[in-house]
Model the fold of this input.
Amino acid sequence: MSDIGLSEDVSTADTAAAGLGGAQSDDTDNAEAYNSIAFGRSPQDVYNTMMGITDKNPYGVNVPGFIKGLSSIFGPLDYTNILGSQQAIDAMADRQFGLAMNPQNQPGMVGYNSNVPTVTTGVREGLTRGFGSLFGSPVGFSTTRGTVQAQRAADPLGSVMRGAFALAAPMSLPSLAAQTLGKNTYTTSFAPDYDPTKDPNSPSYTGPSSLGGIVDLSLLGSTGMTSTTAQEVYGVAKEAVEEAIDYFSNPKGGIDTVTSVPDNRSFDAFGNVVSSPASSSLIDNDDQINAGILGLDQRSAKEANTQVADSSSLFSPQSISQGLNYFAGPQIQDFFRGVTNNPNVTTRIGPGYDIDKQKMDDNLFSINIPFSTG
Amino acid sequence: MYITDFLNKYKRDLNNRIDDISISLTSGSASDIGQYKAMVGEIQGLTYALEHVQTLLKKVDDESDSTRIRSSTEER
Done:
């Protein structure tokens, strides 16, 4: 299938075999399995056999997750119609083999690609990208240096906020979730730079990964968190909220047909609508209010009012603020209560209404830390 | 930017996306049949687009070849 030249000796490939085939139980089994199929064959043949790669299936079946079970139900998988041609299938199989054999793109080794930089830590381009929420990540991909593993950057604060905002809007804020607040890097499980305490999938993982991490951090608050830490969280949160508002204010992707509706409403101190264009109605000859939404009967008017409010405020700063506060607010508040060791601290994400100025204030993230003078 | 540069860049992007999904597929990211079908479906769509781009590139190449031949004939 492949015409890739071989520049590794067998001992290298032997080490490699231990990292291949996710279904193997341990290294001894792997070595035995490798020895039983490797004799007199090229490394790519061995790799293909271990992964279950065939002329019609460049992905193999011995991979973690759903595919293994799929092939056991439906038999051999055939990707000819998917990839279009035998040539494309062979090329895909070669690429998979190249990435598995040479995850750092070392020159002179199988799978070296001169268009891609060589790396000394982590993994080469192609194994480092996040693939979006729908398509997962390269974690679990088998290579000669073990399986690809995630390494969550040592930014627990970013992770905290990423977890919070990802939950607040899991499919709506791609840049928030993946870029602004930091993201995973990848390496392989046998690499010297692999740190299990930074691997979210490792039992040794010590960092926060989700909203649960916020609770953990809040417990740390009374023992080790510093004011600098709090400031950093504040900065991260502020940036995140700014981007969230920008995102919602300038809808992208599938939300490009939102009609802009001028918002002339007034609000009371609690954010409730106290007057609106719908109230500027006319009175007919029978002293009945017939114009605008309020011209409808009471039940219909309420429903129509709600719809108008929904359509005009869907992407308003207030609704964003309310959404973020609803989803992520309690956890963030808990976190800051831990940081400050003050159970009465309150936080607010997103713009609020300034009663004194009678307008929306500019602060996107505020913390209220009450203290007693007595 | 020449049209061929654009098409080549587009082709590279399509290939990168196919590679990304392929790696994700082999790393076990497909946790159910729905996700698996979505991934394979996108690969199929990208492959279709890739074939079209390749056809266009070939067409552009052929046209530029024939233009060169025509102009050199005219010069003689």
Chain A touches chain B at residues 22, 51, 58-60, 63-67, 70, 79, 81-84, 88, 92, 95-96, 99, 126-127, 129, 131, 134-142, 147-148 (CB under 8 Å). The two ends of chain A are 81 Å apart (CA to CA). Chain A has a mean pLDDT of 61.
